Amino acid sequence: MSIKYLKKSPKTSSTDDLKTRAIVQNLLKDLEKSREEGCKELTKKFDNYEGDILVSKSKIEEISKKLSQKNKDDIKFSYDRVKKFAEAQLKNYGQDFEVELSKGLYAGQKLVPVNTAGCYIPGGRYAHIASAVMSVTTAKVAGVKNIIACSPPKENIGAHPAIVYTANLCGADVILNLGGVPAIAAMTYGMFGNSEADILVGPGNQFVAEAKRILFGKVGIDLFAGPTEIGIIADESADPEIVAYDLVGQAEHGYNSPAWLFTTSEKLANDVMKIVPQLIEDLPELPRTSAEAAWKDYGEVVLCNTDEEMAKISDEYAPEHLELQTKNDKWFHNKLKNYGSLFIGEETTVAYGDKCSGTNHILPTKGAGKYTGGLFVGKFIKTLSFQRMTKESTKEVGAAAARISRYEGMEAHARTGDIRLRKYGYSN
Question: What pLDDT band is residue 3 in, cutting at 50, 70 and 90?
């Protein structure tokens, strides 16, 4: 089959990206400092508006009274169908479905895996065998047809042998001896005879994370990842030695890996702060150096008065990994809302989830647990909506769509409804 362009665009949607990015970066940098006053100044400059920023309840009521009833009815028509479809999506989460929203108007969703996934597997400081399991396996189960795995090579060896074995076992179609920014670029741009990746997943150092951040939009990514984190909620019932071991267990990741203890027990806090340096000192050189720096510069012990306070501050931090070692674990499980993955009770620990217990270890950091979870099969699956209608349903839908378009000032939109109404014998 040959392809012939009868009309070819001289530009793409990305043509002005660099210029736009520079403008937005500068604006955001300024607004971080100037905050509300900066927002007001820019609103005056760009929108010629100097009124209230916050819309009051009385203003909303005033606006509502001024809108025509027909306008409000059309908006309600739109709202009712969008709400009904969203409710159907929630009810059928993770499944294909179709629902009749009103007579002759059908809408639904279809779950389709991405075609190509790029999995980054760290192998510099440590050989992250488990990261190969977490990323490649999950993509394979999701139904991704083409999986590219990249891992940093060692001199005269290539990628760590156990990583190569694991990536192949888990279903990688291609394995590349590439690390860092070159790996991210190769998967994104489709190098070495491979297709361009639709999504990139997997942990990595700050350079890998930044490359993914910059390329996001060109390619999908799992998370905006930062250094790994652990938070532990513990009361007087916790074993201080186990708490200390678990904090150190994560601190060995790197010099900037936060380790936080939230506790209502001052005795436990003091015992843990005494034990942690001893445990670090007993480590081999590489993990000792990392853990020592991480605990010194990023370790925190927070003393709270109540369980409520511990839950509140933990949700503010939104730790990537959060352990519960209390006599009220069930209450905390029900109460807590922000974390990457939860480890309930002394019997479990972050390392179990990191390595082999089943949950995924590619998780949100830097507070991202407030708005997202970690890597799961859904990250590789597109939830695609569709709709179909009878000619009869156009009488209601086409007329409402045309009127709403005109309220918005979008005349060309309105006419796409008008032409169907005319063709099918209806009026607007």
Answer: confident
Same domain for 142 and 202, yes or no, is yes
Same domain, yes or no, for 365 and 234? Answer: yes
Same domain, 125 and 210: yes
pLDDT digits (tens, 9 = 90+) for 191-250: 999 999 999 999 998 899 999 999 999 999 999 888 999 999 999 999 999 999 999 999
Whether residues 336 and 358 share a domain: the answer is yes
- CB of 322 closer than 8 Å to CB of 341: yes
Q: Which of 368, 339, 341, 367 is nearest to 354 (CA)?
A: 341
Q: Tell me the pLDDT band of 18, cut-offs 50, 70 and 90.
A: confident
Q: How far, in Å, CA of 176 to CA of 236, rounded?
A: 49
Q: Which amino acid is at 133?
A: V
84 within some domain: no
Looking at every residue in the chain, the average pLDDT score rounds to 93
Task: Note the pLDDT tens digit of each residue in 163-197.
Answer: 999 999 999 999 999 999 999 999 999 999 999 99
| 295 close to 255: Cβ distance less than 8 angstroms | no
Token representation of residue 121:
């597997």
Q: Alpha-carbon distance 426 to 145, whole Å?
A: 47
Closest listed residue to residue 198, CA positions, set 180, 184, 183, 218: 218
DSSP state of 153: P
Looking at the domain assignment, is residue 40 inside a domain?
no
- Annotated active-site residue 320? The verdict is yes
Predicted local distance difference test score (pLDDT) of residue 127 = 86
Q: How many CA atoms lie within 13 A of 125 on its CB side?
A: 13
Catalytic annotation, pick one of 128, 160, 253, 321: 321
The answer to whether 171 touches 132, Cβ cutoff 8 Å, is no
| Assigned domain for 157 exists | yes
Closest C-alpha among 318, 152, 345 to residue 239: 345
| 207 in the same domain as 142 | yes
Catalytic residue among 320, 323, 346, 361: 320
Query: Which tokens belong to 244?
Result: 């200390």
Total number of domains in the chain? 3
Q: What range defines the domain where residue 250 resides?
A: 230-370
- Whether residue 240 is found in the same domain as residue 344: yes
pTM (whole model) above 0.85: yes
∠ CA(370), CA(376), CA(381), 5° rounding? Answer: 110
> Are 203 and 257 part of one and the same domain?
no
Residues 393, 107: Cα–Cα separation, whole Å: 13
Concerning whether 160 is annotated as a catalytic residue, the answer is no
Distance of CA 327 to the CA centre of its chain: 32
